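Progress report, Aim 2. The chain analyzed during this reporting quarter is listed below.
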Amino acid sequence: MTNDDRGGLRRQLSGRQIGMISLGGALGTGLFLGSGLAISMAGPAVVVAYLVGALAAVVVVYAVAEMVAVHPEAGGFGAVSDRYLGPLAGYVQRWCYWFAQVATVGGEVVAAGLYVRFWWPQAPLWAVVLVFALGIALVNVAAVRVFGEVEYWLSMVKVTVLVVFVVLALLLVVFGLPGRGAPGLAAWTAHGGFLPNGLGGLVLALTVATFSYGGVEGVAMTAAESRRPERDLPRAARRVVLRLALFYVLANGLIVAIVPWTRSAAAEGVAQSPFVELFGSIGLPAAAGVMNFVVLTAALSAANTTLYLGARTVHSLALDGYAPRALAAVNAQGSPRRAVLVSAAGLGAAAVVSAVAADTAFLVLLGITLFGGMIAWLFILVCHAAFRRARRDLPPSPVRLPGAPTTTVLGAVFVAGVLVITAFTDVFGRAWQVGLPFLGLVLLSYPLVRRRVTASPRR
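Predicted structure tokens for the chain:
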């Protein structure tokens, strides 16, 4: 398959939509819901965890943008892995990534259901999840320009309110607000100090922080539907890095400065966002309700983007013969509707899991997502090293990862370390329990699938 063959997908996404889509996948439960889990592990040192995670995300997003700007084809970084690492790598990476997206979309709608409980505590989680799942599926089976516009405005809501949140929180911390004095950063060292749970707590928080940035690689999946990929992808990569650093590092630093970390990590755990807790703590219950609406919007936005990523991934697998050919079909609007419906399995799974295990549903899906996402990041970085070697004598990409190949290697080592750590944690142990058997199944299935593919169309 040539670079210009997009498998029937249409270039209908504008630069502004791609920029918001890249944020849509990363600004979801990882920031609004997962931050409470990270704070419970690291305390005020959660700032360091998110800063380190941001550096890893910078490496990944620049690496993937550098490669896909040269190869803007269906399948994004999975197709590039097929090209530079071979068909087995492309097969394994895309199936693991699809698995992660299916779990992620389920986790996001479960999170959305938890947010609804802020207003209606007795609402059945499974019923709320089911309603949201149907709405997200409908948006994704429409033309991609409809998806892009819906995602643009969903992301715009959360980005705008996050900016307002950061500004107000900064004013409170530095100058104070009416009826509330400026707390400064005293809370960073109170309640057990900056590292209340020691270095071990910080290391564990790195797993949550790194997961939070999952989705930054999603910009690559828009390549085949971008109107001007050589311009839009590098621009989106640069902007998303700055925005994520602002939102994750600064926002969490302000939270632990205003709300004691012990309260953000209280017994309710992930049942209530620290962002909502923040507004409630300063005596603004109406604002807390507004913020809860915003984080609900953020979760739905992330689910919307994640379903898009999963559908495009399995669509590209079908194009290469690694998934049923029927999933390569697109409708008259250029939408891979069958691939969307198959990827929506995560929505149905979320409804089932939330019905039978409402209290642990989010953590189960979080662990599965982390495993698949980190496998995909590892492949991206290994592929980037091969990409750089293969293109040594060719014109450079319009965007380049600074410091490569050193930064590529360091990023891969960090991601591998995070993946190993998950095996020794109670929260993410399920990641290996489910993810490792799935990885084994993918590897075992490859020889059988490969027999049906006489040659890889992309190679």
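The first helix runs from residue 15 to 26. The radius of gyration is 21 Å. These observations will guide the mutagenesis work planned for the next reporting period.
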